[in-house]
């Protein structure tokens, strides 16, 4: 014979389920926690549950830097660091931060870039002199009159840094960059390399790990060049997102 639970028991179970699912970390609670961590001004961008049970993910902008902080659901424990998934070998924190990237291009140090073209559509490109796909993208840029590109030399290897030096210290940086892409060996004259060093520092702050990396006028970041007509597709994407 089946036993029927009293209505009061059923009500208690429903209350427990409802209260557990309805609990959410509020902005005020998160702000009070962040005040204990940071003395700078901050802005909370998003709060959501983490892939692992028992923690909330708080995305905040501290100064000019975006950060991810993990808060235990009883608000006692705080974790600020890299969350790794051992099974998939992924850095979930790093991927989350990269997904949040959107920059203000009006703050870009264009004096440290090489200008190419005079079109109305601006692109900002981090390029490596030894990068094959960068050279392919460069060829496509030459055929496009709609774009004004600002090329930030972003060498990822010591040998590439030497080539960046040859380019930056030359009298005509754009033509020298094209010569390097064509495989020509150039001398490395001496000049002030601080602009290239600043590009490297700038790119690291934007979490740029590969080249080419393209940044649109609206601040969206696109990594890589993997197919023909890349710029055509990028321009369509940019115009649709701005409309």
What does this structure look like?
This protein has 243 residues and is of the alpha+beta class. It folds into 2 domains: 21-99, Nuclear Transport Factor 2, Chain: A (Roll); 105-242, Glutaredoxin (3-Layer(aba) Sandwich). The chain has 8 helices and 11 strands. The chain has helices at residues 7-22, 27-37, 92-99, 132-142, 158-168, 173-181, 194-205, 230-242, and strands at 42-49, 55-62, 65-72, 78-79, 84-85, 90-91, 114-116, 121-127, 147-153, 213-215, 221-223. A 5-stranded mixed sheet has the order 7-9-8-10-11. It has a 4-stranded antiparallel sheet with strand order 1-2-3-4, with helices on both faces. A two-stranded antiparallel sheet has the order 5-6. Strand 2 (55-62) and strand 3 form a beta hairpin. Helix 5 runs antiparallel to helix 6. The longest helix is centred in the N-terminal third of the chain and has 16 residues, at 7-22. The termini are far apart.
């Amino acid at each position: 014979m089946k036993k029927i639970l009293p209505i009061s028991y059923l009500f208690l179970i429903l209350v427990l389920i409802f209260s557990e699912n309805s609990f959410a970390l509020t902005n005020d609670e998160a702000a009070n926690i962040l005040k204990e961590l940071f003395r700078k001004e901050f802005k909370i961008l998003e709060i959501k549950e983490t892939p692992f049970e028992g923690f909330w993910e708080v995305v905040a902008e501290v100064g000019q830097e975006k950060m991810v902080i993990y808060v235990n659901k009883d608000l006692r424990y705080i974790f600020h660091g890299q969350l790794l998934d051992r099974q998939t070998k992924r850095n979930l924190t790093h991927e989350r931060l990269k997904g949040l990237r959107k920059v203000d291009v009006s703050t870009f140090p264009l004096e440290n870039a090489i200008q190419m073209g005079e079109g109305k559509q601006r692109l900002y490109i981090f390029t490596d002199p030894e990068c094959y796909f960068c050279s392919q993208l460069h060829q496509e840029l030459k055929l496009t009159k709609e774009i004004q590109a600002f090329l930030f030399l972003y060498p990822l290897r010591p040998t590439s840094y030497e080539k960046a030096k040859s380019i930056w210290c030359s009298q005509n940086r754009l033509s020298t960059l094209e010569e390097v892409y064509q495989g020509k060996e150039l001398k490395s004259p001496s000049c002030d390399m601080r602009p290239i060093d600043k590009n490297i520092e700038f790119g690291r702050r934007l979490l740029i790990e590969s080249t080419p990396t393209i940044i649109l006028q609206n601040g969206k970041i696109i990594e890589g060049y993997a197919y023909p007509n890349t710029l055509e597709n990028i321009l369509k994407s940019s115009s649709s997102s701005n409309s």
